[in-house]
Amino acid sequence: VPPQQHLPGFAPQGGDGDEDFSLSPTPSHSQVQRNLQRRSQDQINQKVSELVQFLLVKDQKKIPIKRADILKKVIGDYRDVYSEIVNRAGRTLQQVFGLQLVEIDTKHHVYILISDLPRAEGENLHRDNQTAKLGLLIVILSFIFMKGNSAKDGAVWEFLRRLRVQPGERHEVFGDVKKLVTEEFVRQKYLEITPIPLTDPPEFKYQWGLRAAKETSKKDVLRFVAQIQKKDPTFWTSQYNEAEATP
After folding, report:
1. pTM of the model as a whole
2. How far is CA 127 from CA 99, 122, 186, in A?
3. What is the CATH number of the domain that holds 101?
4. DSSP bridge partners of 113
5. pLDDT tens string 212-236
6. What b/e string do you get for 197-214 counting C-beta neighbours within 10 Å, with b at 16 or more?
7. What residue numbers bound the domain in which 76 lies?
8. What is the pLDDT of residues 84-140, one digit of tens each?
């Protein structure tokens, strides 16, 4: 078995079944930066989200992930900025899910996700599942905070759909997402969901629950958002001031 190598970014060279997607020569950092300027941040963020979900689902099946599949099924027309998308997805996986993308076969470019979190023998499945759920929770808490500490249910689910998490479908990582969010997270006091008066059909607002405020902080959540968006936390003036004022 070839030695594990931490992912430095993909370097397509062809010859492994993905010739259609090979880049010759591999674009330099400055070329990638120029290509990035031709795309909107939203487009890039969308691709990063798609790649994160793709890798998480593949990992749940414990199937090694081929670079050719990533290029074909996710990156597509964005292959001129593939290294930036992969690097951002890698950071998100590490920061949110405690997972690291590792190359296990350098000849055929095959990757797996490994857990960064220390864990006891026999806890693997349980801890992996919990890590993924907590990752989803942090994403939801971040969205609520950035929306001014309260978000309508419709906005929350629209945001999750962009991450390929559908309320009506069974998700391969999270199972019944609607039940997880509206029942489990509420029961655990991570989320508080209350009806909005005089709405027809009924609407609900999502806010942080008591446990969320104890186990994380607005400062941590803003730092997480800033890392993903590659901005300084001070970019969001009101959220930054609120986070700094909150113990």
Report:
1. 0.57
2. 12, 9, 20
3. 1.10.10.1200
4. 101
5. 888 788 888 888 777 767 778 888 8
6. eeeeeeeebbebbeebee
7. 29-114
8. 888 888 887 876 666 788 877 778 778 888 765 444 334 444 445 566 777 788 889
